[in-house]
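User: I'm curious whether this sequence folds into something compact or stays loose and floppy. Could you predict its structure so I can see for myself?
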Amino acid sequence: MAQDDYGRGAPLSYNRYLRVRELIALQECLSTPPHHDELLFIITHQTYELWFKQILHEIDASIAYMDEMRVVPATRALERVVEIEKLLLAQLHILETMTPFNFLEFRDRLKPASGFQSMQFREIEFVSGLKDEGLLASFGDDELAVTRLRARLGAPTLGEAFFALLKRRGFDAPEDDPTLPPEERRGRYERRVRALVELLSHHERFAPEFHLAEKLIEHDEYFQLWRAHHVRMVERMVGTKRGTGGSEGVRYLRTTLDQKFIPELWEARTHLELGHGEPD
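Assistant: Here's the prediction. I'll summarize afterward.
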C-alpha cells in the first residue's frame, strides 16, 4: 500500500475511509484573526453542498427508475430526498445562533462570492423543473459549473419523467413542447392536470403512482419551505442589504418564493371534487 498521511501499509480505518484528515482541513477562514462564527458559516454551507450532492444522486436515480417503470424504487429515492430537505430546513436554525453583528464582522470577506453561485443548488432546480439558462451568466469562468448546468438544461426533469411514466400507464399526460404555439402548450398542460385529477381521485386503484406523485409534491413543498425560511433568516441577519455577490439580497429571494417544480401537481388539487373518486 502506498505511503500516505495515515501510515505506510496501515489497514483500512474509519479516518482513512472517510478521508477525515482532508475533510477537517477544508475549512479555511478568511477573517484575520479567524472570527469565531466564520467556522460555523463555512461548515454549515459545506454540509449543505454534501447534502445537495446526495439529493442529486437520489433524483437522478428516481428519474432512471421511472424510465424503467420501476415506481416503487423511484418513490423510495424521492422519500430520501424529502427527509434530507427536512434536515436542511432544520440546519437554518443553527445559522440563526449567530448574532447579526457577529456575521457582519466577517461578511465583507466573502465578496464577491455568493450563495447565488451554488452550482449544485441550481442543478437541483434545473432537474426538478426550474430551468433558467440565464443563470449560467452568474458562474463566469467556472467551467465545471457551466458544463454541469448545461448538461442539466438538456436532460429530462423529474416532471417530464413522471408524466412520461403516466402516459405509458395509460393516462392522457402529453409531454410539454416549447416549440408549440402557446394555446397548444396550454392545452397539453390542462390534459396533464386532468390526468392528475384522475390519479388523485382514484388513489387506491393507482396506489404506486399516487405515492410517487405525493413524494414529488413533498419535494416541491419542502424546497419551498426552505426558500421561505432562508429569506427570513437572511433578513434577520442583514435586513435588506445587497447580497455579497451584488444581488438585491432579500428583495431577490422574495421573488423566488412562488416558484413550483411541477405546477400541475398543485393545480390538480383545485379541480378535485367529491363523488368522482373512491371512498376514503
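Summary: The radius of gyration is 22 Å. The mean pLDDT is 89.
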